[in-house]
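User: Let's play a game. I give you a shape written as tokens, and you guess the letters that built it. Ready? Here's round one.
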């Protein structure tokens, strides 16, 4: 749970959804809920704040409860939570756009995962996990640099010398220029 969000929501008076009164008290309760369908169903629990209006006797939860349930689902699936996804960018001080350029993860997808609207699949979660290590980020930056400088040979050519290297680079360039023709053949 984000401590900033948590603190601010605690100090803000909660308005009753039903009658608009601010005569609302809050308690933290453990909520159990079902996740998944018939064959792959699980009972999960989340710690949520439940608000109760003394004026009209209405009980309700707010956005932070939805976040808490979402976090619980992410833990169940073994993937990074929205907060953990956001933290990756925060550590490197990258905007969504910059992180998207580096990782090639679509900016819209990234925004949905960070906002808790969608959960990333396991493959993307693995990529995100690897990017929590700064040496992996450095590797991607190096790769992007090599791409931009049009050096197209791959690491396996690094041991080649002289004519062999030049020939390999020509082949690599030709392949990059005509990839479709190569694939059709
Ligand atoms: Zn009320």
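Assistant: Ready! My guess for every position:
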């Amino acid at each position: 749970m984000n401590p900033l969000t948590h603190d601010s929501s605690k100090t803000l008076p909660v308005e009753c959804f039903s009658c608009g009164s601010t005569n609302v008290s809050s308690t933290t309760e453990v909520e159990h809920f079902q996740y998944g369908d018939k064959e792959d169903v699980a009972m999960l629990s989340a710690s949520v704040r439940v608000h109760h209006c003394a004026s009209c006797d209405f009980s309700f939860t707010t956005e932070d409860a939805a976040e808490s349930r979402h976090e619980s689902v992410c833990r169940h699936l073994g993937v990074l939570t929205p907060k953990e996804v956001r933290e990756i960018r925060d550590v490197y001080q990258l905007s969504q756009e910059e992180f998207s350029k580096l990782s090639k993860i679509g900016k819209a997808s990234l925004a949905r995962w960070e906002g808790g609207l969608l959960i990333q699949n396991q493959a993307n979660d693995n990529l995100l996990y690897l990017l929590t290590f700064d040496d992996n980020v450095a590797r991607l930056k190096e790769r992007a640099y090599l791409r931009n400088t049009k050096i197209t040979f791959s690491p396996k050519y690094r041991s080649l010398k002289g004519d062999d290297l030049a020939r390999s680079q020509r082949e690599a360039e030709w392949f990059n220029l005509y990839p479709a023709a190569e694939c059709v053949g």
